[in-house]
Amino acid sequence: MRTHVRCFLEYLQLNRNASPRTVRAYDSDLRQFVSFLERHFERPADQITPREVDHHAIRRFMAELYDRGNARASSARRLAAIRSFGRYLRREQLIDQEPGAMVATPKQERKMPARLEISEVEALLAGPDSTTPLGRRDRAILELFYASGLRLSELVGLDLEDVNLSSRLVRVCGKGGKERIVPFHRDAGGALLVYFGDREALVRRAPASGEAPHGGRRANADPLFVNYKGGRLSARSVHRLVRRYVSATSARLGISPHALRHSFATHLLERGADLRAIQELLGHTRLSTTQRYTHVSTAQLMSLYKKSHPRA
Fold it and tell me: Helices (H) and strands (E) in the chain — how many of each?
């Protein structure tokens, strides 16, 4: 079974152009599933054939995840990985039916993503120390996050050539390799311009290499945001960076870079932006996904009600 999993992961990379992050997620989920199958069938994975794995085995695996207290979203992701693996096995004529299709997806908990009030955003943007190069870099990161609503992976994957300061536009490579153009406001442009003055000094510290910088989409790409050694800033570093500034400027806990993306969308919606336009800015394929990110505050609804209802 492990051999089939390895072939599937190679197929994702070579034939489906899956990102390294996606491949790692599939690898992790399927490793856990294969370990379960070894316990379930009481023999090594290499002695288990794809045809032996039916929907009953998958249901027992899902039940085990539930008993362990796994979040529904995590369990649903693992089931999606198993289904994708099953479709691959069927395509390769190793099974006749895809058993994961017969297993119900765990119902998702409709948790509203965290959002920041405008005053909290302003305090956050003022948090970095503007007297230091790294502080000016951090200010540019936070400004661009809130100005454009980018995903964390999209922001750290930006290259220098993706940003057009004169037109205040950024070219983003989103999920599935889909490109979109997103505008950013004057304040973000100003913060980027200031950061560019420090960036060259940081880049000169980077070791010479003929390889594309980590996370880059192009060979010999120049990463937009760099660390103190001149290399591409990692997603983990940016995540810690945002959490650090939030904790310093707000009493809120658990705020991640995604909160800036959600705040971006919510604040646009509250000021009358069209939901379809927000969908394009966020890079969502389905409008229903955008609706999960955006909600109108109770105060906004009450204000609208008072303005619109004839007896209010």
Answer: 13, 3
Phi, psi of 112 (to 5 degrees): -80, 125
Whether residue 43 lies inside any domain: the answer is yes
Count how many domains the chain has. Answer: 2
The pLDDT tens digits of the residues spanning 80-89 come to 999 999 999 9
Please name the residue that has the structure tokens 């505050």.
297
Residue 223 DSSP SS3:
strand
Same-domain pairing of 170 and 244: yes
Q: What domain range is 297 assigned to?
A: 118-304
pLDDT for 34-64, tens place per residue? 999 999 999 999 999 999 999 999 999 999 9
State how far the Cα of 259 lies from the Cα of 149, in Å rounded to an integer: 9
Catalytic residues, by residue number, are 151, 175, 258, 261, 284, 293
CATH of the domain at 259: 1.10.443.10
CA–CA distances in Å: residue 197 to residues 24, 145, 186, 194, 234: 36, 20, 17, 5, 21
